[in-house]
Specification:
six-stranded antiparallel sheet; binds zinc ion; Peptide Deformylase; 6 strands; 3 helices; globular; alpha+beta
Length: 185
């Protein structure tokens, strides 16, 4: 297991159509493990393979200790619309409101290659749509209605009267901003 570098906006791979996974092998399972490590390290909620430089249709999401691995995910059903803040590990510190379906049904294959079908809502539904977008070369900023709504949250900026976070020896914790609640993926 290892932490892989996350590509950031401007890298051409983030704008490519990722390829379907034909055969699951040990190297892909290793990739899945690396993606979870990378995502944890970056404090993210989800990650798509192209974000770590692998142009394949694979996404991982972790929410409330539940892990989701989907090879060749396909959203087959969408219901409702809800607008909420989004962030992305490939656009660090940028946040903005994106309208997404409230509920989605997604099918694909899990880590073992077994066909799965999931019905998700709320944050998980949002994360799935965000990650599947990555597989099609779409970034959340493309979906923000008005780019003026994008906000950059400076992690070094001290925004309140709170004392410095002493439980953050690396100094990498984001500033204590309500905007930070938007999960990055
Ligand atoms: Zn993203």
């Amino acid at each position: 297991m290892a932490i892989r570098p996350i590509l950031t906006e401007g890298h051409p791979m983030l704008r490519q159509q990722a390829k379907k996974v034909r055969r699951l092998d040990a190297s892909l399972r290793r990739l899945v493990d690396d993606m979870f490590d990378t995502m944890h390290d970056a404090d993210g909620l989800g990650l798509a393979a192209p974000q770590v430089g692998v142009p394949l249709r694979l996404i991982v999401i972790e929410h409330e200790d539940e892990r989701y691995v989907l090879f060749n995910p396909e959203i087959t059903r969408q219901r409702g619309t809800v607008t909420d803040d989004e962030g992305c590990l490939s656009l660090p510190q940028w946040f903005g409101p994106v309208a997404r379906s409230e509920q989605v049904t997604v099918k694909g294959r899990d880590r073992a290659g077994k066909a799965v079908r999931l019905k998700l809502e709320g944050l998980l539904a949002r994360a799935i749509q965000h990650e599947v977008d990555h597989l099609d070369g779409t970034l959340f900023t493309d979906r923000v209605e008005d780019r003026a709504q994008l906000r950059y949250v400076d992690p070094a900026q001290d925004t309140g009267p709170q004392p410095p976070a002493s439980d953050d020896p690396d100094g990498t914790a984001p500033a204590d901003e309500p905007d930070q609640q938007a999960a990055a993926s």
